[in-house]
């Protein structure tokens, strides 16, 4: 929408407050649903904090998933060169351009009405991801976007606090698991703060947290990624089992699993929670050796 323009000034955009959110929701007959994880941020300071923490700048093309009524979208439009908003809800998708036109006139919003889990292309090549991800599908959406759009170099996502700790966990942590390892294939992740329940409408029943990430070189090609993820899934399916036992079905037998693990330099008596993503990649590579 509109022509490309120079970096905007903060005063150009008016952010949504609680009154605005409820007014727009009433206008379009919206009743937030748990099925789609619809909890809308109603505090301008919170969305500005999210954008500031994300580190996005005037040269970035930011993809946002689940823009909802536009609270974070408007804050991103204050700073970023372009914002690509992916919204699955047709009612919300229909309203967002009008909200942007009213409160951020002249800004470059590219709206994609689609399921983020199925998006394979975008109108612009994104350089960053900043989003309040739908909590019920946050990990699959994050992994899909990192896999599908290698141009995304960094970002910040708001997710359920429990999920945030899993994503940012390292080997040896009690919450280290499948999300931790799979996300680590693509990027370095770290906790970047907490978000109180009172800044949402309606208030969620869970705590929220921010996870920042920066992409790094992946441990291997697509074939190795798929093989590694299969090993990761097997290793954590019964996380208290040793890897020799946990990988027995995948390898064909416990003895073959032990052979593969030893060839990869991994103790067969260790458990999945002790391995880094690079360790898992070495194990996966030995399956085909």
UniProtKB/TrEMBL annotation:
<feature type="binding site">
    <location>
        <position position="66"/>
    </location>
    <ligand>
        <name>S-adenosyl-L-methionine</name>
    </ligand>
</feature>
<feature type="domain" description="Ribosomal RNA adenine methylase transferase N-terminal">
    <location>
        <begin position="46"/>
        <end position="217"/>
    </location>
</feature>
<feature type="binding site">
    <location>
        <position position="39"/>
    </location>
    <ligand>
        <name>S-adenosyl-L-methionine</name>
    </ligand>
</feature>
<keyword id="KW-0808">Transferase</keyword>
<keyword id="KW-0963">Cytoplasm</keyword>
<keyword id="KW-0949">S-adenosyl-L-methionine</keyword>
<dbReference type="GO" id="GO:0052908">
    <property type="term" value="F:16S rRNA (adenine(1518)-N(6)/adenine(1519)-N(6))-dimethyltransferase activity"/>
</dbReference>
<feature type="binding site">
    <location>
        <position position="87"/>
    </location>
    <ligand>
        <name>S-adenosyl-L-methionine</name>
    </ligand>
</feature>
<keyword id="KW-0694">RNA-binding</keyword>
<keyword id="KW-0698">rRNA processing</keyword>
<dbReference type="Pfam" id="PF00398">
    <property type="entry name" value="RrnaAD"/>
</dbReference>
<dbReference type="InterPro" id="IPR001737">
    <property type="entry name" value="KsgA/Erm"/>
</dbReference>
<comment type="similarity">
    <text>Belongs to the class I-like SAM-binding methyltransferase superfamily. rRNA adenine N(6)-methyltransferase family. RsmA subfamily.</text>
</comment>
<protein>
    <recommendedName>
        <fullName>Ribosomal RNA small subunit methyltransferase A</fullName>
        <ecNumber>2.1.1.182</ecNumber>
    </recommendedName>
</protein>
<dbReference type="InterPro" id="IPR011530">
    <property type="entry name" value="rRNA_adenine_dimethylase"/>
</dbReference>
<feature type="binding site">
    <location>
        <position position="41"/>
    </location>
    <ligand>
        <name>S-adenosyl-L-methionine</name>
    </ligand>
</feature>
<feature type="binding site">
    <location>
        <position position="115"/>
    </location>
    <ligand>
        <name>S-adenosyl-L-methionine</name>
    </ligand>
</feature>
<dbReference type="GO" id="GO:0005829">
    <property type="term" value="C:cytosol"/>
</dbReference>
<dbReference type="InterPro" id="IPR023165">
    <property type="entry name" value="rRNA_Ade_diMease-like_C"/>
</dbReference>
<dbReference type="InterPro" id="IPR029063">
    <property type="entry name" value="SAM-dependent_MTases_sf"/>
</dbReference>
<feature type="binding site">
    <location>
        <position position="132"/>
    </location>
    <ligand>
        <name>S-adenosyl-L-methionine</name>
    </ligand>
</feature>
<dbReference type="InterPro" id="IPR020598">
    <property type="entry name" value="rRNA_Ade_methylase_Trfase_N"/>
</dbReference>
<comment type="function">
    <text>Specifically dimethylates two adjacent adenosines (A1518 and A1519) in the loop of a conserved hairpin near the 3'-end of 16S rRNA in the 30S particle. May play a critical role in biogenesis of 30S subunits.</text>
</comment>
<keyword id="KW-0489">Methyltransferase</keyword>
<dbReference type="GO" id="GO:0003723">
    <property type="term" value="F:RNA binding"/>
</dbReference>
<dbReference type="InterPro" id="IPR020596">
    <property type="entry name" value="rRNA_Ade_Mease_Trfase_CS"/>
</dbReference>
């Amino acid at each position: 929408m509109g022509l490309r323009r120079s970096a905007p000034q903060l005063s150009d955009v008016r952010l949504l407050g609680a009154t605005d959110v409820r007014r727009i929701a009433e206008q379009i007959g919206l009743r937030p649903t748990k099925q789609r994880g619809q909890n809308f941020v109603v505090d301008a300071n919170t969305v500005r904090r999210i954008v500031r923490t994300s580190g996005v700048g005037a040269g970035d093309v930011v993809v946002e998933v689940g823009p909802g009524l536009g609270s974070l979208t408007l804050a991103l439009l204050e700073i970023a060169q372009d914002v690509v908003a992916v919204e699955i809800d047709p009612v919300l998708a229909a309203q967002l351009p009008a909200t942007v036109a009213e409160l951020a006139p002249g800004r470059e919003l590219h709206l994609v009405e689609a399921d983020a889990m199925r998006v394979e292309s975008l109108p612009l090549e994104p350089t960053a991801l900043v989003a309040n991800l739908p909590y019920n599908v946050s990990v699959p959406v994050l992994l899909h976007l990192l896999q599908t759009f290698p141009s995304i170099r960094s970002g910040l996502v708001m997710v359920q606090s429990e999920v945030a700790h899993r994503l940012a966990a390292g080997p040896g942590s009690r919450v280290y698991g499948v999300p931790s390892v799979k996300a680590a294939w693509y990027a370095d992740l770290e906790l970047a703060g907490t978000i109180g329940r009172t800044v949402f409408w309606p208030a969620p029943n869970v705590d929220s947290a921010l996870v920042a990430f920066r992409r790094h070189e992946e441990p291997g090609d697509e074939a190795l990624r798929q093989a590694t993820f299969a090993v990761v899934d097997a290793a954590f399916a019964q996380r208290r089992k040793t890897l020799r036992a946990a990988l027995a079905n995948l390898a064909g037998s416990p003895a073959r699993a032990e052979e593969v693990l030893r060839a990869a330099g991994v103790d067969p008596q260790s458990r999945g929670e002790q391995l880094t993503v690079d360790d898992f990649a070495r194990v996966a590579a030995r399956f085909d050796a």
